[in-house]
Amino acid sequence: MTRAARRAVSAAVTLALVSVVVFALASTLPGGDEEDENDRPLPPDYLAAVRAQFHLDEPWHLRYARWIGDLSHGDLGVSLREKRPVSSILRERLPVSLALNAAALCAIVLLAVPLGIAGAWRPASRPDRLLALGTTALYAVPVFWAALLLQWVFAVRLGWLPLFGFAGETLVDRAAHLILPVACLTYGGLAYVSRFVRTAIVEGTTGEGGRVARARGVGPLRFLLVHGLRQAAIPLLTLAGFLIPRLVGGSLLIEEIFGVPGLGSLMFQSVLARDLPVVLALTLLSGTVTLVAMTGADVLAAWVDPRSRRVT
Amino acid sequence: MSRDASVLRAGALLCVIVILAAIGAPWLPLDPNRVDLGSVLEAPSRAHWMGTDGLGRDVLSRLAHGARVSLGVGVGTAAIALLIGLPLGALAGYRGGWWDAIVSRAIEAVLCFPALLLALALLSVAPGWLSHLPETARLALALGLVAWTPTARYLRAEFRRLKSSEAVLAARAAGAGGWRIALRHLLPQGIAPVLVTLAFGAAAASLAEASLSFIGIGVAPPTASWGQMLGEATRHMERAWWLALFPGAALFVTVYGFNRLAEGLRDWLDPRPVLR
Asked: Which residue from A26, A95, A211, B51 could staple onto B242, CB 3.0 to 4.6 Å apart?
């Protein structure tokens, strides 16, 4: 228990460190929007009022202290760009990103696990090599290029799917808007995950324990799934630790290209507009998810595997 | 099982093709930045093998010059990742204790850091001393500052594993000091996985450069970059397929080549047959 507590404290320290650097770095960027929508300069007294409201004339370490103080009350501040609370913006955007990335993760797992098992069926055979070749080739296809080609084929040429956006009255319409972005987020992950599953199973089935099970007369499919996958549990947990953070931050380019109003496009627009409160909130959110997933995977792996429990 | 270098050779071949394009770019007959409004959006022909873009510039010339940016950023980022990751990983793995704790926290901090903000800070509003550097170097710096974590992680693990090996014990018994053990005994044995991550890292950096240039905060026009060419291609999607096809294919060949090189290195350095 103390070990988990220590990890939690160190995670909090890490996040505090990151937020200081983000704050300092963002403060060195010259001020953002001093023009209105038509690029005309805003009146100076209005600018002065905004500066005073957001304390923009104070040095950054004072503003950081203020931000930490607000944060301790659960207040994430007000967006400079949208002039409304960051928390309400996040509440709008989070479900969109979660839906998009969860769909992509499900697609990756549903496709990659069978592919990995198929590859492990006869290691180094022709189908295994072809699978590896195909998925690694897909992995190297730049995602924005794929997005462009898919948009061109399915939206411009064939007209089957919407080109852009996330609106939609009906459920079918919404799902149609999701298909191309999800496809773009899925294909690149196939190589990594299927290779991971395959290697884990092969290592699990070729060892001493595998030979014993085979000698006892365990059938091939049962052998592969029960013995192989059980051995694969720990690497798969590590993999989950890497994949789960993608739920909130893994789709910046795709959200921008397809006009999906999620957290990725929010991050992009906020960084460009130097909207510091939003950038900080997003950093905290994705950082927390990253650290929790990594730590959680470690702790679970230790719990599943008695060997690593003894070591630490 | 003999060592199989076929994947390594294939990856090296693809990389060599891209390197040759980058080296040969200045000798191409057409200027990559020459605007010719008389021949806008021309399909591939004998005069322009890969067609022309929205300003009448030759796509082939721009493609070859883009290879310099892509390779420069890829290799530069890998070099910076090595420069930062090697000492930190070695320190954490060899010394352990507080050093290990500090480096591990630093790695976690970098994983949580919004890389986009760093790229923007170093590219658009670079501090004085940075603005003298060419754009490619600044991009490599921005990417390298967040790309060193795999190098450090792998080297740390290798050093931890090897530190208690019998070879190191023998060296210590023979009176070798800490530096000598680290440089002469641990580094040569532990460098293999680092080389593999560097090749993967170069591929990722080329891709990241293209992504940044695609969304408009990487290489500034008129410098030719594949990502930026693809960004322009979105505006002519219905009329000019060649604008999207060739830069994307070039990027694919580069990324695929570096990745195969990395995989080939891994297979070759670690010839366990089942992993292939």
From this structure: B51
Q: Which of B6, B35, B32, B40 is nearest to B247 (CA)?
A: B32
> Could you give the CA distance from residue A19 to residue A89 in angstroms, rounded to a whole number?
20
In chain A, which stretches have pLDDT less than 50?
311-312
CB B226 within 8 Å of CB B64: no
Does the distance separating the beta carbons of A294 and B105 come in below 8 Å? Answer: no
Which string of DSSP letters, residue by residue, matches A83-132?
Answer: -SBHHHHHHHHHHHHHHHHHHHHHHHHHHHHHHHHHHHHSTTSHHHHHHH
Question: What CATH architecture applies to the domain A91-308?
Answer: Orthogonal Bundle (1.10)
Q: Which amino acid is at A199?
A: T
Q: What is the mean pLDDT of residues B258-266?
A: 87
ipTM of the complex in this document: 0.79
| Beta-carbon contacts below 8 Å between A and B | 119
Contact A143, A104 (CB under 8 A): no
Q: At residue A156, what are phi and psi to the nearest 5 degrees? A: -80, -55
Instruction: Sketch the domain layout of chain A as residue ranges.
Output: 7-72, 91-308
Q: Which residue has the tokens 């055979």?
A: A125
Q: How high is the pLDDT of residue A189? A: 82
Using a CB-CB cut-off of 8 Å, the residues of chain B touching A280 are none
